[in-house]
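Dig into what follows:
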Amino acid sequence: MLSFSHVGLVVTDLDRSVRFYEEVLGLKCLERYPDNGRGLQIAFMGVDAPVLELLHYADPSIQQRPERGRYDHFAWYVQDLAPIIERLQQHGISLEEPGVRTVLDGRQVAFFSGPDGERIELVQPAR
């Protein structure tokens, strides 16, 4: 049986990204590993379990390897979009147009970008 572990996200500044995910989305840095001599620093972010692995490579050419594949976005479930959007605004972060919208079965979604341009979706279940 399979269960989801985490998403690995390459970032250009590990400290900045850790601060962003802590301050803006309320995640905790659960584990952090310094460079082990291979030019890679890692931080695992989450609430109860790691769900986001931030990877910082010392070599900038590794950070932009297109052969690794692409993703469109990753999403977080939230109980209430309003306080999260308010916190985004306090940090100077704008939502993508058209802002909050209702999709599929009545869920409300909103998209914004993280510090390295990663596309993040917030999903509020239908009420």
The longest helix spans residues 14-23. The beta strands are 7-10, 28-33, 40-46, 50-57, 74-77, 101-103, 107-113, 119-124.
